[in-house]
Structures are given as structure tokens and as C-alpha cells.
Amino acid sequence: xxxxxxxxxxxxxxxxxxxxxxxxxxxxxxxxxxxxxxxxxxxxxxxxxxxxxxxxxxxxxxxxxxxxxxxxxxxxxxxxxxxxxxxxxxxxxxxxxxxxxxxxxxxxxxxxxxxxxxxxxxxxxxxxxxxxxxxxxxxxxxxxxxxxxxxxxxxxxxxxxxxxxxxxxxxxxxxxxxxxxxxxxxxxxxxxxxxxxxxxxxxxxxxxxxxxxxxxxxxxxxxxxxxxxxxxxxxxxxxxxxx
Length: 243
Known about the structure:
By secondary structure, this protein is α+β, with helices and mostly antiparallel strands. It has helices at 177-222, 232-242, and strands at residues 5-6, 13-17, 21-25, 30-36, 39-45, 52-56, 61-65, 70-75, 78-82, 87-89, 92-94, 101-104, 109-112, 117-118, 138-144, 147-149, 162-168.
């Protein structure tokens, strides 16, 4: 072993030197060179840092740098995230998206253009004026449609989702809210009163029938039983026979 090479290293190094740091790594770790000023130091990591991609070889696992416009990459020619000012498309980082695509500043990717989509018109609403359907002759009726898909930045915008038109109805008076409420209250009181009256009459009838029944039972107990009148034909029969 070279005098500058040590095997009692720290931090995942299999071999190392005082000047260059790690020279080789323990199994499954990635070797990467970090620049410190004019000097490069070897380190061993469980995964490659941002801006690098890992490659495994039989004798060593290495981290290599991505392209200059890539923030992270799967291989040198396939980026997974771009640096600021670039948009990701099919593994490449572009300053401008191709035709038919638009730049998404939220994900920093080139995405398909999305146009607005709406539902069909709803049926026309009842003819109204100032929120009422009575007390007028000329009013307005309205129909609406719902937005199913909002457009992207370069997509076709949504059309108007509300339409209104004039309408004519047969004029009718509005029932006053107070009067209508009063009538409903009077009807309710009258109904309750009638029900109470019927209930009282039924109670009185039951009480009268019970009293009559009790009176008849009392009379039957106090009056003596009447003696049965003799049958005249039976009383005269022996005398006639003897004669």
C-alpha cells in the first residue's frame, strides 16, 4: 500500500489519503469528486447530489455531472428537472417550448394547450323582475352554462356563461306577506278551535252516556221485583173439571 493511502478511513471510504480524501468507497456507495477551491476531494455518498447522476460499475459506483442546464438528471442526456429559465420537455431543457405546447411556469415544463369547455345552456328561468315573479308585466328570464374545463394560459378563453332576454307575462298582484301570514295564522287558530270544540263535545257525550248507564244500574238495584200475575185460565181449570 502506498504510504499516502490509508485503509482505516471514515465516512464510507474503503481507501483514502490525507490529501485527496476518499479514493474508493465501500459497497453500494457512490464516489464523487467535490471541488474545494483549486483542490478536488473524493467523498462517498449513499446517493448522488443535485446536478449529478449515478452510474454503477462492477468495480466502482460513480456520480457524474448533468448537463449545464439540468438541475437533476437520470442520465447525461435525460434531464428530470431544469435549472431556472429552462422548461423541461422529453428529458431536455429548453428556453422556448415547441409549437403546440406552452410553458407552465408552475411546473417549469412544456405542456399541452388546454381550451375552455362548457356545458349546454340550461332551460330559461321563470320571468322575473327585481327578484319577484308577480306585480309586473315585463321582466327578464335568464339561462346559464357551467364551465367544465378552465383554459390554460394559451387556450381559448371561456365564452359568456349567462344570457338574459326580455319576457312578458300576464300581470298578477303579489300577495302581501303580512296578509298571507295573518290568514294562515287565523286558519290555524280556527282549525285548532274546531278541533278543541269537537274534543269537548265528544267528552261531554261520553260523560252523559256513562252517567245514564250508572243511573239505570242504580235504579235496577233499588226497585223490588214485581210479582208475576196469575193466569186466570190455570186457576179456573180445576173447578170446571169438578163441576
